[in-house]
Write a structure and sequence with these properties.
The protein is of the alpha/beta class and about 200 residues long. It contains seven helices and seven strands; from the N terminus they run H-E-E-H-E-H-E-H-E-H-E-H-E-H. The chain has a four-stranded mixed sheet, sandwiched between helices. The protein has a three-stranded mixed sheet with strand order 3-5-4. Pathway: Cofactor biosynthesis; riboflavin biosynthesis; 2-hydroxy-3-oxobutyl phosphate from D-ribulose 5-phosphate: step 1/1. Its cofactor is Mn(2+); Mg(2+). One of its GO terms (biological process) is riboflavin biosynthetic process.
Length: about 200
Amino acid sequence: MLNQKIEHAVAALKAGKLIIVADNEDREAEGDMIGLASQVTPANVNFMTKHARGLLCAPVTQQLAQHLDLHPMTTHGNDAFGTAFTISVDHRSTSTGISAFDRAQTIAKLADDTSQAADFYRPGHVFPLIAKAGGVRERGGHTEAAIDLAKLAGEQAAYICEVLQDDGHMARRPTLKQLAQRWQLDFITIAELREYLANRQQ
């Protein structure tokens, strides 16, 4: 049942769909909408910014961050959860960088094997996040969950956005499940993903 649930979510991502991933209720107790960077569309970026309403970010592997020269936003961060923001970027082919079309283009180019560091302006309107090498087994965050899912799909980059309630507060698990059902999106938890990955290693 667990294998089927995670594999269905990965298949949805590979098909260009978004999914919702919830972290542990004793951590941030939040949920993020997640998509594969290689499958990004302006429509999905617009959906995220309209319905999820959090900060649109783009998790990447450490190798991709090195290749694209994505440096940490700060070397003295004191974020309680250790979120590894880099300096924000826009792809050089964009205009102002903020439209759904421009952000989708930047995200897609982060996942493009032919992209080089010089192809991106800094700062920009998309916030790359560098995932820990050990994935959710090292850090139970949405950055790592997104990259673990991307790796299962054969990719190195994703895009994510926190899900807020209509009143502006963070959406918690009961609400996240309701929203996933309403929007017909797969719903998984980081704990489920961690268990799935552990089972694959056995």
